[in-house]
Amino acid sequence: MKAIPPPIIYKNISELLRDMDMPKPLHPLVALVNYDREKGGRNIVGKKFMIDFYKISFKKDFRGQIKYGQGYYDFEEGGMAFLAPNQLVTMSEDESCLDGYILFFHADLIRNYPLGKNIQQYGFFAYGVNEALFLSDKEKKVITGLFENIADELDNNTDVFSQDVLVSQIELLLNYSNRFYNRQFLTRKAIHNDLISQMDTYLNGRFENQSGGIPTVPEVAKHLNVSPRYLSDMLKTLTGQSAQQHIHDRLIEKAKETLSTTRLTVAEIAYQLGFEHPQSFNKLFKRQTNLSPNAFRKSFN
Predict the structure, then answer these.
(1) Is residue 88 part of a domain?
(2) Which of 59, 104, 134, 274 has the fewest CB within 10 Å, making it most exposed?
(3) Residue 272: closest CA among 264, 282, 260
(4) Same domain, 16 and 116
(5) 157 and 215 in one domain?
(6) What are the residue boundaries of the HTH araC/xylS-type domain, all occurrences included (predicted)?
(7) Crossing angle of helices 293-300/278-289, nearest 10°?
């Protein structure tokens, strides 16, 4: 059997740009590739690699089908994708030839700024490629302007304000991306409602099968073919609940149904729902309903 080569690991931006046949970065901790001017990367197309820095890609004129959950949906807008350090990347043929920008920046650039602590709040760095951000024409103009501002700053002579300005511009780019993702959740509500319906069907099946323990967010997200963070952010926008809260709600509804329609003991119900210990079930049920399972059963009767 032919051995699968290990991924290439890039610890700094300069090494990656060199292998992409791109000019050296103007700043050691941040680089902006403008595919309107530079075409490169073909020699790493199809190769797997990991980067030790952040990557934000913006494709101006993306057209085609993108998978959401179990279905495919057509888009005519540009798109953005976000990657955190130490995630596995495979550069596609499309990425090496489309017009747009790719911004790379190292964690050291933002480490001594509030953004260094807050960047984990931007959940889209944990989204999958099939959960990219799709932009309207108006949004594309905003994003293009932000990338152009970063390009202008990188072209300026470095001074004591350069890093402050660059970090501020990156943070503004992330905040606009956050706003546009929230819009995407809302405008594609029908798509996401279908995803929620599929999630509930899966959870009901898991509770009925009485095996495999309590469903987890990663398990459900894998079944729906979305990332756990995307699932939670989408649910938070549409329902006000995280994915974990949604699972707990469905679990408690199933418990109420079983408590009110069967003579199973509380312990038997707990094991049936996937709990290893009845005490854990009692604790969750009381936290969710302000009643113990036995008190709920008595009040129902």
Answers:
(1) yes
(2) 274
(3) 264
(4) yes
(5) no
(6) 197-299
(7) 60
Q: Assess whether 172 and 212 both reside in one domain.
A: no
Predicted confidence (pLDDT) per residue in 269-295, tens digit? 998 888 888 999 999 999 999 989 999
Q: Are residues 141 and 31 in the same domain?
A: yes
Nearest to 200 by CA among 211, 190, 210, 208: 208
Instruction: Note whether residue 46 is domain-resident.
Output: yes
153-201 confidence digits (pLDDT tens): 998 888 889 999 999 999 999 999 999 999 999 888 888 888 899 999 9
Query: Same domain for 36 and 181?
Result: yes
Task: Count other Cβ atoms within 10 Å, centred on residue 54.
Answer: 23
Give the structural domain span for 54: 8-187
Is 211 in the same domain as 163? no
The whole-model pTM stands at: 0.82
The per-residue pLDDT for range 227-261, each reduced to its tens digit, is 999 999 999 999 999 999 999 999 999 999 999 98
Which residues, including other chains, have CB under 8 Å from residue 234's CB and lie 6 or more apart? 185, 192, 195, 226
What residue has token string 């057209």?
A: 63
Q: Measure the CA–CA gap between 253 and 130, rounded to whole angstroms.
A: 32
Is residue 230 within 8 Å of residue 123, measured between CB atoms?
yes
Q: Does 98 share its domain with 207?
A: no
- Sheet containing strand 78-83, strands side by side: 30-34, 100-105, 54-59, 78-83, 133-135
What angle do the packed helices 228-239 and 162-187 form, to 10 degrees? 70
